[in-house]
Amino acid sequence: MIYGPPGSGKTTWVEEHKQRGDLVWDFDVVMTALTRLPRAEKPEECIDLVLAMKDALTREMAVHSIERAAWIIVTREDEAHRLAERLGGEALEISIAEDVRQQRLSERYG
């Protein structure tokens, strides 16, 4: 489980560390795939659906072992630790200087 605030570099970190064939769940990527909207656009009525997809995935992972690594990207520390405990994984915090994070968010969302 990879966690940290928006703009901290979670997705970038996973992209740099994952191996070919690893599973990756990322809210922004799933939302974009479902809605075909730009990353900055997250329709309110779709948020619960995207989160339900994460819950379904992690429920299945808890019951059925998988033969590959899985990276679950979340923002909240408590959720990362809860999932790590349930799935027998680890929780890793990604953090950067606040001014750098704010700059990234400004560039991303305007």
What do these coordinates show?
With 110 residues, this protein is α/β, with parallel strands linked by helices. It has a single domain (2-109), classed as Rossmann fold (3-Layer(aba) Sandwich). 55% of the residues lie in helices and 12% in strands. It is built from 5 helices and 4 strands, in the order βαβααβαβα. The chain has a 4-stranded parallel sheet with strand order 2-3-1-4, with helices on both faces. α2 packs across α3. The model has no long low-confidence stretch (mean pLDDT 93).
Spell out the key features of this protein.
Rossmann fold; alpha/beta; 55% helix; 110 residues; four-stranded parallel beta sheet
Write the layout of secondary structure elements.
Layout (H helix, E strand, L loop, with lengths): L1 E2 L6 H8 L5 E4 H9 L8 H20 L6 E5 L2 H11 L4 E2 L4 H12 L1
Parallel strand pairs: 1-3, 1-4, 2-3
Helix pairs in contact: 2-3
Summarize the structure.
By secondary structure, this protein is of the alpha/beta class. Helices cover 55% and strands 12% of the residues.
